[in-house]
Design brief:
alpha+beta; Pdz3 Domain; Double Stranded RNA Binding Domain; 3 domains; seven-stranded mixed sheet; 9 helices; globular
Length: 469
């Protein structure tokens, strides 16, 4: 890890300059969503379509949803504009943008989109959670996962005219499984804005599936092979017995398909099929619980690739609303309005002496990060070597989750070492950070030569997102 520290510090410095956000004067702003120009005549052809939304960001607050077609921005039609031109329209210096949006049941509705701005030389707790991810990769990591999905979409059927759906009848032999799958499909489709209706529905939804044992062509190892899959229920990544399609260790083959038909013609207008190799048995409903919500990430805008993949960004942290000085994280530059820190009485200009008894005694960000990476090196032995590595945000590093059997040792190390682990408070809902499960953070604050102890009850924020690649 030592060989990577210098490069990582450089990358961290670049990331804290604001990334892809707008740098306007001495401010950095974001709108909180990503988009792609649609390639499909059936959904927003040659217009920007929202593909991911950052929780707690401006787009989330405005009511935008994934799948929204942006018809115009501040009165400028978006048809046939390039991605760069769309980006320029969204990042002018005006405080709000007026968006005209179409989606299922929302034809050309108007939304006000604000911006979140901060001083260019400041750092938010959201950024710090990614910066200090090695304290808890369980809560701050990212993973790109390719899924064995095949999409088909009719080019002539106008999905943007669809309002309702219904499920095709089930046979008595498959009714139990069908109902389990339909619950997952119904939840995803309703979230897009569609309504279930049995009175002349616009779409008829059906599923098919098969699970078959196969003879492995290689001798299984003592440890079951697996791959990462996203768990929609817990918004987390889980290891499942999924293998590459041609793996010689496969003991089962599984296929699962979802089909949306035009009830008038009985022709498929959208479909997705998963074909999976498994290293151990999984029931169809169990596999579907992990896969159907991701399959329907490609509805109504199906991925334009034979190997669709998504990046799953996990980001959970304790939010107080403090915004720190990037040059020295001891100084508070701003306190977000209505935040726990504002309610507690912390003010811009305050100097943070310690957090939960851990002193902030490093004079610069570089010194603090060097100490942080020293902790990371010394604690590497406590990682779970049986799990695959995860990507560390804002750094050229990969690492693993903590091994649960070492939680006590990690907590002891954080308390004992003078590695300046004060910003581990961002993950203090975890037992390896906060073994006593205290729900209040104590900040020691210096103001005009006086030192105060300020208790803050933080909010646990989950800003995990799914981003199509």
């Amino acid at each position: 890890m030592k060989k990577i520290i210098t490069k990582s510090l450089l990358l961290l410095g670049i990331a804290l300059q604001g990334g892809a956000m707008l740098l306007a004067g001495n401010e950095v702003c974001r709108v909180g969503f990503q988009f792609q120009i649609s390639h499909l005549p059936a959904w927003g052809a040659s217009q920007p379509v929202v593909t991911s939304i950052a929780p707690f960001g401006p787009a989330d607050r405005s009511g935008l949803r994934v799948g929204d077609i942006i018809e115009s921005i501040d009165g400028v039609p978006t048809l046939n504009l390039t991605g760069k031109q769309i980006h320029q329209l969204l990042h002018t210096r005006q405080a709000q943008h007026i968006l005209q949006i179409s989606n299922f049941g929302r034809q050309k509705k108007t939304y006000l989109l604000g911006r979140d701005c901060k001083l260019a030389h400041s750092v938010t707790e959201r950024e710090l959670a990614e910066l200090f991810a090695l304290y808890s990769l369980e809560d701050a990591s990212s993973q790109r996962i390719a899924y064995p999905f095949t999409y088909q979409q009719a080019s002539t059927f106008r999905l943007d005219q669809v309002r309702t759906f219904a499920f095709a009848p089930s046979s008595p032999a498959t009714q139990g499984i069908d109902q389990a799958l339909n619950i997952l499909i119904r939840k995803a489709l309703v979230a897009t804005g569609l309504e279930e209706s049995h009175d002349s529905p616009d779409l008829l939804i059906s599923t098919y599936y098969q699970l078959s044992p196969v003879e492995p062509t290689a001798k299984p190892s003592d440890e079951m092979p697996f791959g990462w899959r996203y768990d929609p229920q817990h918004r987390d990544l889980k290891p499942l017995p999924v293998l590459p399609s041609q793996s010689p260790l496969a003991t089962y083959k599984l296929s699962l398909g979802i089909v949306a038909q035009n009830p008038q013609t009985q022709k498929a207008v959208w479909s997705c099929e998963a074909n999976e190799s498994l290293g151990a048995d999984m029931s169809i409903p169990e596999y579907a619980a992990y896969s159907i919500p991701i399959m329907l990430q490609g509805f109504p805008l199906a991925p334009n690739t034979l190997a669709p993949s998504w990046t799953f960004q996990t980001l959970r942290y304790h939010y107080t609303g403090l915004v720190y000085d990037k040059a020295t994280l001891r100084r508070v530059i701003d306190v977000e309005y209505g935040s726990p820190a504002m309610s507690a009485g912390i003010l811009p200009g305050d100097i943070i002496k310690s957090i939960n008894g851990i002193e902030l005694d490093h004079p610069s960000l570089d010194d603090l990060l060097t100490a942080y990476y020293t902790f990371a090196e010394r604690s590497e032995k406590y990682r779970d070597k049986d799990l695959p590595a995860m990507h560390v945000p804002m750094a050229n590093l990969q690492s693993r989750y903590w091994a649960p059997r070492h939680y006590d040792a990690i907590a002891t190390m954080l308390l004992r070492d003078r590695s300046d682990a004060a910003f581990s408070y961002l993950f203090s809902f975890r037992p390896y950070i906060n073994p006593e499960r205290l729900d209040v953070l104590v900040f020691e604050v210096e103001r005009r030569g006086e030192v105060y102890r300020v208790p803050i009850r933080p909010e646990k924020r989950d800003e995990s997102t799914i981003i199509p690649n």
